[in-house]
Amino acid sequence: MHASAVVCDERVTENQSQSPCKARHFKAIEGIPSTYILEKLHQLGPRYYGDKSTAFAELYVEGIDKPFWVHEEYLVLQSVFFQETLQNVTSGDIITITLPSPDTFEHILQYLYDGDADKWYDTLTPENYFGVWQNIESLGLGIEARAICLTYYHSEIKKKNLNDDDDDDDDEMIDDDMMDDDDEECIR
Question: Where are stretches of biased composition, namely Acidic residues (predicted)?
């Protein structure tokens, strides 16, 4: 399950005045690298994560019975899916999304706020890592999120399977799915 969205390329071409992927409210800070903005947002993330009083919208994930109070800046800078989804959302709206693995969303969202790769890595388990990967794909998260999941896969899952001497075809299928052409390009 993939979200249909245009993958953003931050580079501006010769005939283009600005990146087509900039969120509508980031035009005022054009010229500041998104990596710098994201670094500053991550520093403030623990303060804003789940903060209803400053939230842009109330987000529901089908299969989870509680709301997530989200801030547009944290989502659109890191997710192609949210860049597209939030284009027509106004402050205070209620949004409902469907994900392949709802149970793994909360840790992903927290990572989008605080950028703490180690903390997110520690939430991965052999039982949930493929669901996390499916959500990464569906949300259109970037190379950093993919790298965390792939690192877990290669250091924990693949290593365990080699130690078990298991020739299960499912392992090859998962490895092939996780390392498609887009991922090979991201890792280069």
Answer: 164-188
Q: Who contacts 174 (Cβ-Cβ below 8 Å, separation ≥6)?
A: 130, 153, 157
pLDDT at 178: 52
Tell whether 79 is covered by a domain.
yes
Structure tokens belonging to residue 80: 């192609």
The conformation of residue 11, written as its DSSP 8-state character, comes to: P
Residue with tokens 């547009």: 72
Does 36 fall in a domain? yes
Domain holding 142: CATH number? 3.30.710.10
pTM of the model: 0.74
Calpha distance 79→69 (Å, rounded): 16
Whether the per-residue pLDDT at 21 is higher than 50: the answer is no
Is residue 60 classed as helix, strand or coil in its secondary structure? strand
Instruction: Please list, in sequence order, all residues whose beta carbon lies within 8 angstroms of the beta carbon of residue 27, skipping any fewer than 6 positions away.
Output: 18
Look at residue 92 and tell me if it is in a domain: yes
